[in-house]
Hints:
Largest sheet: 7 strands, parallel
Bound molecules: zinc ion
Strand order of the largest sheet: 1-4-6-7-8-9-10
Radius of gyration: 19 Å
CATH class: Alpha Beta
Structural class: alpha/beta
Oligomer: single chain
Amino acid sequence: MLATSIVGSLPKPSWLAKPEILWAPWATDDAARLAEAKRDAVRLAIADQEEAGIDIVTDGEQSRVHFVHGMLEKIDGIDFNKKTRIGIRNDRYEADCPTVTGPIRRPAPIHRDEVVYARARTARRLKVTMPGPMTIVDTLADEHYRDRPALAMAFAEIINAEAHELEAAGADYIQLDEPAFNVYLDAVPTWGIRALNRAVDGLRAKTIVHICYGYGIEANLRWKQTLGDVWDQYRMTFPALADSAIDQVSLEFAGGRVPLDVIASLGGRKDVLVGAIDVTTKTVESPEDVAGTLRAALKHTTPDRIFPCTNCGMVPMARGVAQAKMRALALGAALVRAEL
Length: 340
Ligand code: ZN
């Protein structure tokens, strides 16, 4: 009961990538040294989670430059040399995005070796994350399909083929990150959910969709200030999610203005990864803070549905802060577990 996990990413050691920024460049251009550094960082990421008391671990996304682009690098039909500056997340901020220039295709497994490596290094349950179709489409320039639903479905098929291989390699949980679900609210019940369902079709691993309000970067903080006193975006997409094929929904509840009663809009049909750690602040929550968020969530669903988690990935943080926050998460969950 109340098994803890992080959303996915952890800060990278400075010998792997430039610390405390998003899209951090690798510390070396040498392919062999980089591969070794990534593997070493994965060992640390797993050990750090285990030491903190996290029950379901990830590889900390140590092998990817960015949670979306890390996967896309290995897909044909995307030109990484043709970067186009576009407004993403409905023009919330600009990013230099690779360009779709032809039909997309996955010529070989993308994350399989990473999962095999991580699987061999922990006895705990293992979660693997990938970007979801809508968020991928929103983080690319497209000169070929010129049709967002069609491009999303093409990616959903690629994700599904990849996910089946990751499941076979030992992933117990497969999570698709869809921050775009909190932005394009009208498109979620139509092509957003359709693509998501296609992406998880036939999987036996537990499937998760992660929907959040983003990292603590300047553009996101400004955006949050425009969302008013109550952040009710989840309420608009949850009825569609309640009917989806996804098993679990990973949500942001700590430090923001999301009312916890939105959980009821899932109709009791989904597990909820309750974000009880704010990733936009260096202030480390106390175990009692975490427990408070979990107790509030328990008013709206049953304990077997609750999985304590972070609000979002922790990649841009200082390593010591991320470690302390993971520890607080595990201790806070233990407090509430003892009350059940
Ligand atoms: Zn997130």
